[in-house]
Specification:
Elements (H helix, E strand, L loop, with lengths): L1 E2 L2 E2 L4 E3 L8 H8 L6 E2 L3 E2 H5 L2 H7 L9 E6 L3 H14 L3 E5 L5 H4 L11 H14 L6 E8 L4 H16 L4 E8 L10 H10 L5 E3 L6 H11 L3 E4 L9 H9 L9 H19 L1 H15 L6 H9 L4 H11 L11 H4 L21
Parallel strand pairs: 3-11, 4-6, 5-6, 6-7, 7-8, 8-9, 9-10, 10-11
Antiparallel strand pairs: 1-2
Length: 357
């Protein structure tokens, strides 16, 4: 598939996840088959103020392409300026977050609020598209509506129609409402209907994609062009290749214990380069807990990662639980979903800029 002039080599991509999908997570996934990734939501005002916020927004490398810089905000002129900053920094795509359901985000007229304020959303899209060079694709992340009212459906329709009209290269749609947040099941039939309604447009689906089998099922059931994997990719960077193999009618063995160890070492090292040891340890503790699901002694390994406070204690977990090789396991969907509210998916809000280590 393509997003504008950006070629995506397989239809399974990494969604943006607040607090997770930094350069470290993206690169570890790319080395294991992820063809395209979206950053954490970057707050426009933080970027425009410079300093650590801007440094965080510009954090990528030559290996980290193609990549979309996702921005979130409320004012059209500020979103446009932030988009230009990311474009000049080399981001391949600019993605607008109109989907975040977190109350503190939408109460500031950001994220999911846009689905209740079509005029503002349209102003932002037009301003960003006008500010970007024609060669830089723009995409939009949406939910299916703000709530289940007819007025909300009309607002969604107005926004998506304008998205196509003003030249959006793709839309990514999560088929829950903003009011639903992360409760209940996402309505994949909405994606089917959207596909039928816009057969010539690029539509990416998301929502309840917890395993490689889920990703393939969404692709086949709904007919979307690609599937954005969010929670299912935390601690499982192999999910993209696994889904690709399943789509081709084959299967893929889970990563061995030593393959998992290699990814864990790599992930922590990259996180330290970005954040310093103290912050990396805090971020990697919660990510290590997710990696533990692939280990044959998952419950014990999870408890060991919970106690991590430094590189030394991280390496102690690896020495204790990852020294001997052996087969791994694929986690079931219910294991990935067990803490759904703690690990929101692609439309989660922006993390605060990290303090200086």
């Amino acid at each position: 598939m393509r997003i504008g002039n950006v070629e995506i080599l397989c239809p399974f991509i990494q969604a943006g996840l607040a607090g997770y999908s930094d350069r470290a997570m993206r690169i570890v996934a790319r080395r294991r088959g992820c063809p395209y990734a979206v950053t954490e939501a970057l707050l426009d005002t933080v970027m425009l103020n410079g300093g650590l916020g801007l440094k965080r927004a510009l954090d990528m490398s030559e290996e980290d392409h193609p990549v979309a810089g996702q921005i979130i905000g409320s004012e059209a002129h500020q979103m446009a300026r932030a988009a230009v900053i990311l474009s000049k920094a080399g981001y391949d795509v600019i993605d607008l977050n109109f989907a975040c359901p977190v109350r503190k985000i939408r109460n500031r007229a950001r994220g999911g609020h846009m689905l209740a304020d079509a005029v503002r959303a349209i102003d932002v899209m037009r301003a960003v598209r006008d500010a970007l060079p024609p060669s830089v694709p723009m995409t939009v992340k949406l939910r299916r509506a703000f709530d289940d009212s007819p007025a909300s459906q009309e607002a969604f329709d107005a926004i998506i129609e304008e998205a196509w009209r003003c030249g959006c290269a793709a839309v990514c749609v999560h088929p829950r409402t903003v009011r639903q947040e992360y409760s209940g099941r996402s309505d994949w039939s909405f994606l089917q209907a959207l596909r039928r309604r816009y057969p010539g447009k690029t539509i990416i689906g998301s929502g309840d994609v917890l395993t490689a089998a889920d990703a393939v099922a969404m692709l086949r059931t709904t007919g979307v062009d690609a599937v954005a994997i969010a929670r299912g990719a935390i601690g499982n960077p192999w999910i993209f290749n696994h889904a690709r193999r399943l789509l081709a009618g084959a299967d893929m063995a889970p990563p061995t214990v030593h393959e998992q160890r290699e990814a864990l070492v790599e992930h922590f090292r990259l996180a330290m380069e970005i954040h310093g040891e103290q912050i990396a340890a805090r971020r990697m503790r919660k990510i290590g807990i997710r990696y533990a699901r692939l280990h044959p002694a998952g419950a014990e390994v999870k408890n060991a990662f919970i106690a991590v406070t430094s590189l030394r204690t991280w390496l102690a977990v690896l020495d204790r639980w990852y020294a001997a090789d052996g087969p791994g396991r694929w986690p079931a969907a219910h294991e990935v979903d067990e803490t759904a509210n703690d690990f929101p998916d692609a439309d989660s809000g922006p993390a605060a800029p990290a303090p200086t280590p």
